[in-house]
Amino acid sequence: MPMSSKVYFIKASMAEGEKTISEKAQKLFIKGNFAKCFAKNDFTAIKVHVGEDGNNTYITAPCMKGLVEELNNLGTVSFVTDSSTLYVGNRSNAINHMALADKHGFNLQTLGVPFVVSDGLLGATETTIEINCPQNKEVYIGAEYENCQSILSIAHFTGHIASGFGATLKTLGMGCASKRGKLQQHAALKLSIGDNCKLCSECLKHCPADAITLGKIQAHIDQDKCIGCAECIAFCRFHAVECNWGMETEAIQQSIAEYAFGVLKNKKNKAAFFNFVMSVTKDCDCFDTPNMKIVVDDIGIVASTDPVAVDKAALDLVEKKAGRKLQELIANEDLNPMHQIRHAENIGLGSSNYELIEIQ
Prior knowledge:
Shape: globular
Distance between the termini: 30 Å
Number of strands: 18
Structural class: alpha/beta
Radius of gyration: 19 Å
Largest sheet: 8 strands, mixed
């Protein structure tokens, strides 16, 4: 039985307002003694998701201000950061990504630190890290994660169409990967279009790889062009896009865990992980949809130096609060979200056993 890890928890709700949430996150940082992970003059990457343009259920910048203040008080040289997306949008290149980050308050004026895109102008400025794991022998991550000495990961717990949920492991594994790294992870998904197709063309409009064509009866996905990004699944209203969820999402979740392993390979005792378990939506913050449906009442913030334990604790809290399994909440019974946690534990990234310590 793996050793139990400490996970710190504080109740919080979006209804309390950004200032109170910020103060509670800061209190969690102090009570959990996360300062030990950071040193004066560290280049410290604060991994965030700035929210897609149009989305209003992401965790806003002011909610993170207290955490950034703690890093500044320690004398770190901190910056908020994310990497480019595979899909076409405002986060697919550094210029538009930085403009969106600024629009959403992830900037010097709001947080006291700048926003830096970790993988360069076009998502190709990367570092190759050898990991020798079952799915990947090496991984490709944004160069700035390797250049920094420490990482503070601030993740928003949400459902996810391919991994079941997105929290710390996905924020690190998918969120820190360069475009080549993201492509490598998504390659496990083999998508096709079935008889439910209504030829509405939404999948064609949102496919970043131009892999979809419209036939007389239904749309068709060119497997040679498809990058497995699952945008077609996300935008299809008729559930026409098909995938072998049982096998293929296990592979993508294992790749996510291995990429997280690569990101943290040279950050032993130099990383802390915060999951904001509030505004928990069925789909992730990459959707540009406003007012996405909340699937469970707000719970709070969990934090740990163990990325596996903090995700398992967040998942347990969500399922306990909802009284249902995550698969039911995201309406995909075939998708097992535990693959990423089990694989991360198997490769030595952390422990799924934890002690939950509530902070009042």
